[in-house]
Design goal:
The chain is α+β, with helices and mostly antiparallel strands and about 1400 residues long. Helices cover about 30% and strands about 25% of the residues.
């Protein structure tokens, strides 16, 4: 409603002799303010804040009168009455000499500001005033209170008398009333005599006159409070009657709100009690209380001291309260707290030190509530009056606080908009996003179609009228529009503002005229003729209707009330306006669809129809009177009407079902009468006009029924005229803001499936709910409330010198306003469930199920009910949690909602929750059936806390297996860690996350980080040297030691069994790509496992099927025979060796070796793999130069992260983000050029090479296949190497395999299998895939050689080394023990005697290393 802005300002006083101020009071027009000090009266101008005149009492008179105490202005601002300590009242007259000004604005030469405009002097110049003491009145008793009452001055004295003094004839109009003779009672219906005060020493301590209640609220010196009202027009003791407020006995001060007829009494305990008068009995009726709560202000809530001052804002929407101990607090009219300076940055410095609260001795509101003038009580005691050494104007204790306020406070027609609009004295704050982005096609349709809105159809999907959610909620920043300075100069302050439905145009109204601004063009439009602007004064607010601005104004020239409509696109001129004369003053204006509704000063409501007329270039709008409704019987005073709106809301929803076209009709008038919401519905009881007449306004003339009160304490009302069949509940509801009581919604109840409604069911229901923000707009379809909140920023750290301690920037934080929003749907659903309206709740929830935050809504509802019921001290007779749980099961998000709620709730409440929603084991199984593995993982945490470890392990195993099948690698890693944690400690609590974590542990394949695989061969002799080397480092860090415990080993074995089972299944189903992902993601030791499975799962049964499957999996095209293949030089194997070597070198070895350049590789000799023992006498061990003793990240790690960790997104398009490798596919032709430089290639040969390249698959697939080739080669799965070699069509790979088979004794079965497989491939190629034939022809001689080998007898000791004497030297007694203790990587087929010591040592370190890295990989908590 109201929000603090920026820092306060301190006034500078130009006079040397000015004393410290003690009282401040603005005049009724809020143009001037009077400042009292003990013997001085000063008059200041408000804008700019300058001193105009000061009156100093002579010392002799000052001693006679005593110090000044209080001042009161005459209603026409021509006189001031000042009371003094010795019982005198001094009357000062303020004559204003015409055309004399103290301050005038100076403009540079040639500026467009003309001084000839009407009212120029009055608006822009500070007038010259005089102060003359006209009269002194001695009341001979201390004066406690002064109050201006119409043409009289009411004075209360400490001797118990009440004096009525006329401003004009002061002596003869004096009447004194003894308070002891005024009868007081509880209400006006009691006996007329009533009880008298009955005490000699009772007097009025504070009082204030309330015009709309026609009486004055009083606080007596003994703390009692009451209301005194004259029974007739004569103000005598006999005619006065008072009523008590029975509950207040410690009153200190009072302030009245005329618009809402409220009396706010400050109490000694620091609270403010707000009362109103019961219109039927005349008794004082308690409304609400303003008090700080211990929840928000634990340090200060009961230490504020008595309430010192209460001041209502000029528009009566907010009240400012201050206490004896200091501090300011701002509250909305019905008790919503907006600001309090006793907490947060106002009370504490940035270093945490407590500040002294600001003590206030007097305060008053400035014009339109944009300023609050405050006298700083601290400064009056400690500031010395002498000037500074540099002779500057002295700062003294008047502070000016700045506020921005919601447009709803003054222009309540804004309540049917979905934007938040705040107005400051010179700027507007809008929450609609960038208008240029919001400019969608719907915007153009508004301007292009010239038919009326009604024809465009209220049944549209609503996109035309509602802004997108993203624009309204996009960010926290405001769109700030600076009001045009030319308009502000002569028309300050801004009184009204309005924004159109699309949030693209704003209009503002100052003192005279108006101006509007387009957010699209970023331009203001002002009146071209300034006389026209200065001749109109807007009285009843303004509103947008499509492209038109509708406003009610007073024509100063013709002294006539008018209703005007201006077109936005034309020039701002009366020539383009449609003007209608109106009988009485307009107080309020609102627009509903094509109807304008006016509330006038004679308490009547007038409805007009508005229609667009395209005439010439500029279309105009015409207006016709539809209906007039007199409300004078129901409204005691027109000023009490806060807002008036036309809505389509009605109590009878049955009509909507039968005749849906009436849903958009103007059905009822909503009137906010001093906080009471009154509804007038159309009377449909009479005969209905069925026939379709030519006159479309026939139905409008239906009379209205008698008014019905819907709600009390209403501050704002929101309703919409849009229709949405899917969200009827939300769009046909009425939303109310009720201050401290939160919000209310008047919700329609619909019968389901168009059934006949139950006769006992009401058609609507009023549901209250609390929200944490002050609501400023309602997004109906999105179930959101938009608001704003004050925030503060401290800058005191910038001022460290002692001299700067008095800076306002140090004393106060900088105040800013932030946008906020809040979901309210869960409150409404809960309220419906409480009232056993579950069917309605379901209808409403299903209509909102598409909202992005709907899951959060269900979670919030469950959480709030759980917290309340599970922590309740008393037993709950009718718990709501089972109902809420049953309600949530209706939605597919049930399982997620429950587990998210449980995870955010403390463990102690879980039993209560799951007693209502069901056993977590059953819910876990439901998640698995629904394939929702992430939610199942969350349930696992619950089960781990609530069940024994065996149950958690059983469920974790289930989940682990399912996650493996679905390839959810992240989840798999979490599950491995989880299973190890359960096994390691059999704990009942979730495992703690280790603090040390590998730097790249998130990548999940740490085993490969210390692994280096390189393949090298020389071009001279392909078969002479085949080195496959493997380097391992020692484990880095203490994690390797963790696996010593037996339970760990058992648990690891358990996990390994599952991993092996999954790997075996993938291999049997020929899912090599999945196998690669699986190994890379989970750090699975693929080579060691493949060694074991070489003759079992890793054996290829059907070569042709495997070949086809790999082609499909890796998106690899089948080869085709080129047209020129008959003459191809490749066919006869001419370039076989050169090209084959070059391909292998460039694509395979370099791929891996080149990446080793920045990684250090250790100096130790590379150990021999199982292949290394074969023919080791002919090979020499290679050593590699190193950059350091420890191996850092090996090259495979980054490659793998690109090769298999990307998952299944293996598309051709994603090949670009792979590791750069020098290969022919990559376009790296340089190496090829070196080797081919001696060859002269013909055109056909070049075509052939390009075709070869075109027939290759995606680069990423190629890298993955090569990686798998290395793995299989190292593990000795030669049949798989053959298949990958076939796919890559590289004879060198096949040659390598054959050379291995020739140079060592290989199991006969393997040779036979490979031979059979290759024959099968040859046969298949002949019939189905001739593209393979050229390649098979190239390798045919080697196949024949293989056949010869296969036919020879093979000795059983297949893997014995060539040099037995070498092995016997290296036999170690620990070999057997060492081998059996290994769980990975050892070869089960080799016996102990044939394994070297170095092999043991290395395998042992390798195993520890792998384990350590596996463990590092899982250091994260399941979440």
């Amino acid at each position: 409603m109201y929000f603090l802005s920026g820092w306060p300002k301190r006034l500078l006083c130009p006079l040397e002799s000015l004393e410290q101020p003690l009282h401040i009071q603005t005049d009724p027009q809020r143009t001037f303010f009077a400042v009292l000090s003990p013997s001085q009266l000063s008059i200041w101008y408000c804008r700019p804040s300058v001193l105009i005149v000061s009156y100093k009492e002579l010392s002799k008179a000052a001693s006679q009168f005593g110090p000044y105490k209080q001042a009161e202005w005459r209603p026409d601002s021509t006189m001031i009455a000042v009371s003094t300590a010795n019982g005198y009242i001094l009357f000062f007259e303020i004559p204003s000499p015409r055309d004399k000004y103290l301050y005038e604005p100076m403009y540079p030469k040639g500026s467009p500001h003309l001084k000839g405009t009407p009212h120029y002097k009055e608006e822009q110049c500070a007038p010259s005033l005089n102060l003359e003491m006209k009269k002194v009145l001695d009341l001979q008793a201390s004066i406690t209170s002064l109050q201006s009452m119409l043409e009289d001055l009411l004075v209360a004295t400490a001797d118990g008398f009440l004096h009525l003094v006329h401003w004009d004839g002061m002596t003869n109009g004096r009447k004194a009333i003894n308070l002891c003779t005024v009868p007081f009672s509880v209400d006006l219906q009691s006996s007329r005599a009533g009880s008298f005060l009955g005490f000699e020493d009772v007097y009025i301590r504070d009082m204030e006159y309330c015009a709309t209640l026609d009486g004055f609220a009083v606080v007596f010196n003994d703390g009692r409070v009451g209301f005194i009202t004259p029974m007739s027009s004569r103000f005598t003791a006999e005619q006065l009657h008072g009523v008590w407020a029975q509950d207040v006995i410690d009153g200190t001060c009072v302030a009245v709100n005329n618009k809402y007829r409220l009396m706010a009494f400050g109490c000694a305990n620091g609270s403010v009690q707000v009362y109103t008068i019961d219109t039927t009995t005349g008794a004082m009726q308690f409304s609400h209380k303003l008090e700080l709560t211990p929840k928000q202000y634990p340090d200060i809530w009961n230490k504020t001291g008595p309430v010192k001052l209460i001041r209502w804002s000029p528009d009566s929407c907010v009240v400012m309260v201050t206490w004896e101990c200091g501090g300011l607090s701002l509250w909305s009219v019905f008790g919503a707290q907006l600001i309090c300076t006793l907490g947060g940055d106002f009370a504490y410095q940035s270093d945490g030190a407590k500040k002294d609260p600001l003590k206030i001795s007097s305060m008053t509101w400035g014009s339109e509530g944009y300023h609050l003038w405050v006298i700083d009580g601290n400064s009056s005691s400690n500031m010395k009056p002498e000037r500074d050494a540099n002779n500057e104007a002295r700062q003294f204790g008047i502070l000016q606080f700045h506020f921005i306020k919601s447009a709803l406070t003054v222009n309540p027609c804004m309540s049917n908009q979905e934007q938040v609009l705040l107005q400051g004295e010179d700027r507007l704050y809008l929450n609609c996003g960038d208008a240029t982005q919001a400019q969608s096609p719907r915007n153009t349709s508004v301007h292009s179609e010239h038919k009326p809105t009604r024809e465009r159809g209220p049944f549209s999907d609503g996109s035309l009228d509602s802004q997108g959610l993203s624009t309204l909620l996009g960010h926290r920043h405001w769109h700030v529009v600076q009001i045009h300075s030319t308009y502000l100069e002569s028309n300050w302050p801004i009184r009204f503002s309005a924004i159109d439905k699309l949030g693209q145009n704003v209009a503002v109204v100052g003192k005279f005229g108006f101006a509007h601004y387009s957010l699209l063009t970023k331009k203001w439009k002002l009146f071209g003729n300034i006389t026209q602007e200065q001749n109109m004064m807007v009285t009843g607010g303004l509103a947008w209707w499509n492209d038109f601005i509708v406003l009610a104004c007073y024509n100063l020239n013709d002294h006539q009330e008018e209703l005007r409509i201006y077109l936005r696109t034309s020039n701002l001129d009366n020539a383009f306006a449609h003007i209608t004369k109106v009988q009485a003053d307009t107080l309020l204006l609102s627009v509903f669809r094509d109807i304008v509704i006016l509330f006038r000063a004679d308490c009547s409501i007038c409805l007009y129809s508005i229609e667009r007329r395209p005439e010439g270039l500029n279309p105009t709008a015409s207006i016709q009177v539809l209906q007039e409704v007199s409300m004078s019987r129901y409204i005691p005073h027109p000023f009490l009407v806060v807002s008036v709106t036309l809505t389509s809301v009605r109590t009878e929803t049955g009509i909507t079902l039968k005749m849906p076209q009436q849903a958009c009709e103007a059905e009822s008038i909503m009137l906010n009468l001093a906080g009471q919401l009154i509804m007038l519905q159309r009377d449909r009881s009479g005969p209905q006009i069925r026939d379709k007449d030519n006159n479309p306004n026939q139905r409008k003339h239906l009379p209205f029924c008698a008014p019905v009160v819907l709600a009390q304490s209403v501050e704002n009302v929101w309703t919409t005229c849009r229709i949405n069949k899917q969200k009827r509940h939300l769009l046909e509801a009425l939303w109310l803001s009720c201050g401290g009581a939160g919000m209310k919604v008047w919700l329609p109840l619909f019968p389901r499936d168009h059934r006949k409604p139950h006769s006992f069911l009401s058609r609507r229901i009023m549901l209250p709910f609390h929200i944490n923000i002050y609501p400023l707009a309602v997004l109906f379809e999105d179930a959101l409330v938009l608001g704003a909140v004050n925030d503060t920023v401290l800058y005191d750290c910038l001022y460290t010198q002692t001299s700067a301690r008095e800076h306002l920037e140090v004393l106060f934080p900088f105040s800013i306003v932030e946008r906020t929003s809040q979901i309210y749907l869960h409150h409404i659903l809960r309220q419906l469930l409480v009232r056993n309206l579950g069917e309605q709740a379901l209808l409403l929830a299903h209509s909102c199920a598409t909202l992005p935050y709907f899951p959060h809504v269900l979670e919030l509802m469950l959480h709030e009910v759980l917290e309340e019921e599970a922590t309740s001290r008393e037993p709950i007779p009718d718990p709501l949690l089972p109902t809420v749980a049953k309600f949530i099961t209706e939605f597919p998000l049930f399982l997620q909602t429950v587990v998210h709620c449980a995870r955010k709730t403390e463990y102690a409440l879980w039993n209560y929750l799951f007693a209502a929603v069901g056993n977590p084991k059953d819910l876990f199984e439901e998640c698995l059936m629904a394939q929702d593995l992430d939610t199942a993982a969350s349930y696992l945490i619950i089960l781990q806390n609530m069940e024994v470890p065996a149950v958690s392990r059983q469920h974790a195993t289930l989940l682990f297996n399912t996650a493996l099948e679905q390839g959810k690698w992240d989840l798999c890693r979490h599950m491995i860690r989880f299973l190890k944690a359960i096994g390691s400690g059999e704990t009942e609590t979730p495992p703690a996350t280790p603090t040390t974590q590998e730097p790249s542990s998130s990548s999940g394949f740490e085993f490969f980080r210390h692994r280096s695989i390189s393949l090298s061969q020389s071009a001279e002799n392909l078969h002479s040297k085949f080195n496959l080397t493997k380097t391992l480092s020692m484990p880095s860090g203490p994690s390797g030691k963790r696996w010593s415990k037996d339970s760990d080993c058992a648990e690891n074995m358990y996990i390994d069994m599952m991993l092996w089972r999954h790997a075996r299944r993938l291999l049997e189903e020929i899912k090599l790509k999945d196998l690669g992902c699986f190994a890379a993601q989970l750090g699975f030791e693929l080579i060691g496992w493949l060694c074991k499975e070489r003759t079992r799962a890793a054996r290829v049964e059907d070569f042709v099927f495997a070949l086809k499957k790999l082609h499909k999996d890796f998106l690899w095209p089948f080869p085709v025979i080129p047209a020129s293949s008959v003459n191809s030089p490749f066919k006869n194997g001419k370039y076989k060796t050169a090209v084959g070597e070059q391909l292998l070198k460039s694509q395979s070895a370099d791929t891996f070796v080149n990446m080793e350049m920045d990684t250090g590789v250790s100096n130790t000799p590379r150990s021999r793999s199982w292949l290394g023992t074969i023919g080791s006498s002919q090979r020499e061990l290679d050593t590699v130069s190193s950059h350091g003793p420890h191996m850092q990240d090996a090259f495979l790690s980054p490659l793998l992260s690109k090769v298999f960790l990307i998952g299944d997104e293996c598309s051709i398009g994603s090949a670009t983000d792979l590791t750069e490798t020098s290969s022919m596919v990559d376009g790296d032709w340089t190496m090829v050029d070196e080797n081919f430089s001696s060859l002269s290639l013909t055109q056909s040969e070049l075509e052939h090479i390009s075709l070869e390249l075109a027939s290759k698959g995606p680069h990423k697939s190629q890298v993955q296949l090569r990686y798998l080739l290395h793995i299989f080669m190292e593990a000795g799965c030669l049949d798989w190497c053959i298949i990958i070699g076939l796919i890559l069509r590289e004879s060198s790979v096949i040659s390598q395999v054959f050379s291995i088979m020739q140079s060592s004794d290989i199991d006969r079965e393997i040779c036979q299998n490979i031979k059979t497989g290759l024959h099968a491939v040859d046969k298949w190629a002949s019939t189905d895939c001739p593209g393979y034939k050229p390649f098979l022809n190239i390798i045919k001689p080697q196949i024949q050689k293989l056949s010869e080998i296969a036919e020879e007898q093979v000795q059983p000791e297949a893997f014995q080394p060539v040099n037995p004497s070498k092995v016997t030297e290296q036999v170690n007694p620990r070999a057997e023990e060492s081998r059996t203790s290994l769980s990975h990587g050892t070869n089960p087929q080799s016996d102990a005697g044939s394994v070297s010591v170095s092999r043991h040592e290395e395998d042992k370190s390798k195993t520890e290393d792998e384990d350590s890295f596996q463990e590092g990989s899982y250091d994260c908590i399941v979440s």
